[in-house]
Amino acid sequence: MTFEAIMRDLKERKFAPVYYLMGEESYYIDQISDWIAENALQPEERDFNQTVLFGSDVTAAQVVDAAKRYPMMAERQVVIVKEAQNIRNTEAFEAYMQKPMPSTVLVLCHKNGTIDRRKKLAGYVEKAGVLFESKKLKDRDLPAFIEMYLRAKGVSIDPKSNQIIADSIGADLSRLASELDKVIISLPEQDRRVTPQVVEDQIGVSKDFNGFELRDAIINKNVFKANQIIDYFDKNPKAGSIYAFLPLLFSYFQNLMVAYYCPKRNDPTEVANFLELKSSWVAQQYMTGMRNFTAMKTMQIIHKFREMDAKSKGLDNPNTPPGELMKELVFFILH
């Protein structure tokens, strides 16, 4: 099941007897387990009917014993196991999943990994309730997440502000949601829009000197602006460094190389679909890139990225500082 489908069922108060929440992205696991903890029971029912356990402190047998109890003066009881990945012997789970207590909502939170779907436990969980894998979002999916998160709270955002936030914070959804909440609180009731100025004021990312603007300047071969931004980063190391922007720029040129294989690369919609982008607006960056960089130059740039990445980690580079490496890289790209 998807996160959206699980949350929809929960809000309709359709509770499964078992939720096995696993994966590398903790945000969705926390969202589901926290919602169950806060809403499955009435406040007055929680003292006797809600149990929170930690995998490092209990065995599977102890969890099962807790799950087999009957609720006290309530329709159901809730048992939440955090850090369930620390429970090694899961045979007791396998037996319980074959006949779970209908009056118990058992939530197992398995972070930073998954169980083997080929093993019996996964099959039993899927038959008994919900087996959910929380996967890390790809960078290209972050703008859609940001827009959806803000829209659900009655806030709009322009594409530039969206991309600046995505580029500066990255795919740590817990941190991203926290920063977005901070932005939402700062907005006046009469103007629920996120602009580049709001991003600069609340998140601390300059609207003029950031990864998005650097990438945009490089794509458009704006040599003056690109060097202006590089100079700013060189003088303000805390604002950005080669270590932060190498992945961002590399990702663009990697996708640009792929775009050359699009059968209809003159059509933004076709390019967007070919690159699995969320909108044709983003595809315009690749249309511009194909006008300004040949396929051969793009291949050479990708090779240069690998060279700079190695040098930034100290390989064949005894003492060149990150700022100088960034200048060398940008010069190579633009000339």
Which helices and strands, and how do they pair?
Elements: H1 3-11, E1 18-23, H2 26-39, H3 46-49, E2 50-54, H4 60-67, E3 77-82, H5 91-98, E4 104-111, H6 120-128, E5 130-134, H7 142-151, E6 156-157, H8 159-169, H9 173-186, E7 193-194, H10 196-203, H11 211-219, H12 223-235, H13 242-259, H14 268-274, H15 280-292, H16 295-312, H17 322-334
Parallel strand pairs: 1-4, 1-5, 2-3, 3-4, 6-7
Helix pairs in contact: 1-2, 4-5, 5-6, 7-8, 9-10, 11-12, 12-17, 13-16, 14-15, 16-17
Question: How would you describe this structure to a colleague?
Answer:
The protein is of the alpha/beta class and 335 residues long. The chain has 17 helices and seven strands. The strands form two sheets. A five-stranded parallel β-sheet has the order 2-3-4-1-5, sandwiched between helices. Strands 6-7 form a two-stranded parallel ribbon. Helix 1 packs parallel to helix 2 and helix 7 crosses helix 8. The longest helix has 18 residues. It is elongated and about 75 Å long. It starts with a helix and ends with a helix.
Order of helices and strands: HEHHEHEHEHEHEHHEHHHHHHHH
Major sheet attributes: 5 strands, parallel
Can you count the helices? 17
Could you give the order of strands across the largest sheet? 2-3-4-1-5
As residue ranges, the low-confidence spans are none
Coarse morphology: elongated
Helix/strand structural class: alpha/beta
The strand count comes to: 7
User: Averaged pLDDT, please?
Assistant: 90
DSSP strand content? 5-15%
Head-to-tail CA distance between termini:
49 Å
Specify the helix fraction band.
55-70%
The rounded Rg comes to 25 Å
